[in-house]
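help with this.
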Amino acid sequence: MTVLVGYASAHGSTREIAERIAARLAERGVGAETASLDAVGDAGGYDAYVLGSAVHGMAWLPEATGFVHAHRELLADRPVWIFSVGMPAALRGPWKPMAAKEEPKVTEEVLADLSPREHAMFSGVVAPEHLPGAGRAVFRAMGLRYGDYRDWEAVDAFADTVARSLRPASGHP
């Protein structure tokens, strides 16, 4: 059993989450390889897939949606989990309710091409250099804060769910 933990990352936090998922799967006895979705050689060489993307403009990055679209027939026949890395944890005050509305919008295009077993929405890292000047001004005006909002326990729990699904009879936790 080999799982592709594929990702599309703009600034690295989605890549680091994918690496964490792959490491956790390996700890649980599931073979996993991590790769950028625009660099996957033989997409058919895997038994299962965990695919993730950074979220920009309420959508997955083009290389992620492109991979899903190009391989939708292959992915329809194998177990698939997806994750998105946005900024729901950075939302504060009156903006906090927007977090619940983000997930359906983010997954809309991806779900048109596949039916994953589960989708996880994680928060990533936001730094001033990740935003254009106007974006920094809006970010500050909304009262948001820069920082690393990744919840590693949630990432591990998601990976554990994947591992249990792929190795239900194993002795691994």
Remarks:
- Helices lie at 13-27, 62-70, 72-76, 98-111, 133-141, 152-166.
- The first helix runs from residue 13 to 27.
- The chain is about 40% helix and 25% strand.
- Residues 81 and 118 are 5 Å apart (CA to CA).
